[in-house]
Design goal:
heterodimer; A: alpha/beta; 6-stranded mixed β-sheet; 4-stranded antiparallel β-sheet; globular; B: mainly alpha; 20 helices
Amino acid sequence: MLELIDVTKRYGDTVAVNGITLRIGSGEFFALLGPNAAGKTTTVKMIAGLLRPTSGQLTIAGHDCACDGIRARSILGFVPDIPFLYDKLTVAETLDFAACVYELPVEERERAREEMLSLFHLARERDLLVEQLSHGLRQRLVFSMAMIHRPRLMVVDEPFVGLDPRSMRTVKDVLKDCARGGGAVFMSTHTLSAAEELADRIGIIMGGRIIALGSPGELKQQAGGAHQLEEAFLQITEEDAGS
Amino acid sequence: MNQTGVLLALKLRLFRNALRSVRREPVFKTIVIGLFIALWICGAFTLMYRGITFIAGFPGVGDYVIGKLLYLFTLALVVMLIASNTVLAYPVLYARRENTLLFSLPLSPASIMSCKLWETLFLSSWAFLLMALPLVLAYFLAAGMGVGLFFISWLFFMPLASLCGACGALISLLGGRYMPRVRMGRGKMAMLLLCLGAACIIWGTWGSTSPGGDQTLRFVNRIVARCQFASWFLLPSSWVVDGIFAVAQGRYGEAAFRWLVLLSNALFLSSLCTLLGEKLLVAGWDRRSSREAPRPALGISSFLAGCSPVRGMVIKDIITFCRDASQWGQFALFFGLLGIYVVNIRNLPYDLGTLFWRYLLFILNFSALGFTLAGLSSRFFFPLVSIELMRFWFLGLSPLGVRRILGEKYGICVVFTVGITGLLALLSGVMLRVSPLLLASSCASVALMGIAMSGLSVGLGAVYPNLRASSSAEIVSGLGGTMVLVLNMVYICGALFIQGLPLYLHLKGFVSAGSLPLWVGGGVAAMGALSIGTAVLSLDVGRRRCENMDL
């Protein structure tokens, strides 16, 4: 579903992402972990088409993001770490706009909007302007925008920040359903418990390179039989920093 | 609906919702802004009408000169429109947070570019409409061309606005993609600015004419000669004016030809913009997003270590201003206009011998200095308090206290605005060859105006903070910004009255030449009282509001 081949991104002389190669298949839930400034958000932005790789190739469901960006993005749902929303649109209008942009058939748009409003518990707020929403409600709206076209690949950057436990559960369920339904999820996060609970595979990025890759169990083994993912993460990143 | 249509429908809906939310704004705010717009329209109309009527009254040459003035006026509009479109288009194309959403959606860059072109055009044109409408109407009425022709002229002005919009967007698009990043040291930068300033002064003082002969006629001749370039046949502004004159003279075929030339050029440039946008927009965005972080300003920021809190805040304000690229465009535009003003001072007829002309030019120059001060303080320093209050969770809890925080902002504002306008007062006074008495008086008055207007900007910045705005331009465009602008205008009127009264009385013969210095000195003292009173009152109200504010 998602393939990164030797992808590098430089900001001037600074190498943010250094030759990452990754393959994420259909039905897979992948979590990218890493300390601050490790290159997580840059990787996510390159997948979403917000940044161009300095070198390397990035494909989504076989579509090269550089040559066939529009088709690649049409099967992607993206939730950024700091999402942008139009303050002067209502919740319903925002979803209508998203449905329009993803070219959903006209007769399906209303149904999709209602489904998202119901799924993310936003029905009561449908006529409120976005500027009137709390942080958690905004985050739920961002998810409903990203999922309105039933994307085959969900790319989410720090999805749980500011969500209440109930909303967090909803988001986790929705993401799991996306992966189980034959799609794929690429999640960048600092919430290790969520990564451990949800991810089939976890990659740890540091200094722009993937330093560890495997299932949660494999990573714990790699860290000398750690009991918790947090323990394994700290040990792996510490070892790499030391080497 | 195609992608551009979807995006334009979105923008229309946003605009409609924003208009609806005006109903939720305080009535007082709506009234103040409405009143200010009405005052502006009436004031601009009256001034333009009187000016054109005055020029039309020149025996023999009046009609000829006002014909040439329309060419010059339209050319000035073109230059201003292209400049404002360029300045507006850059953030719309490359700096908006909206782009993080749009570029992640399956939208073609051409459709995004097309929508942004329309958006820039709209953003710059509504101000153009507000600015130009009363002026153009006054021109047509005073020149005896009638209201009918005024409405027809908009058929020409609209494609002209589109042409300028496309031009501005094209410049920004290409600039964002290809403009080389020059890393210049502060020494080189200061040297470059000094050279530019010196070039302006030399250009401004070069070629001044000496008095003699029929001076009024020579002045008119000089103005007409300098306006010739504005009617050059390749300038779009001349197509507009030629078209309007053709309609006025019943040559409809020629008018239609001019209109079609304008329209085809506007359409060509818009299509070129969209075409290039497809190739360059995403690349330009990527280039901007992939740039290196700014180098730490070692020379300045090293002062932060071990300095006093207030000095630390001053340094912090300077550093953040220098690194905020969104301020640079308006800053450059502002100083560009000032440069044009200085360069053109030499075209003013300061060599005309009559006292009336010299006093008139002195007062006009003084009012220009006042408007410069008002623009500087309200645009760049009024938002500073709101920006600081957004971080009040930190500064508000620090031992600094509101008084010192506001005092620091006020200090920077006074030093900066008085420094620039004081220099301008000195320079323009010397170039206009005003007497030493008036030169000293204008320099002292400008300093006092800086003290008062800085107080108004900082004080009202604390009274009307905007803690939700995403940019300083947005803060200025709110109620507080409008209030500052209105109060600055009222203050300038007061200052002009105080400055102008002794000169008027001298011209009327009520004040003798011997006692004029005393009257001028008295005027400066009165301005001092007015200015210090205004500053103290504004800052005190601001401080009290800040101390009792729930953040």
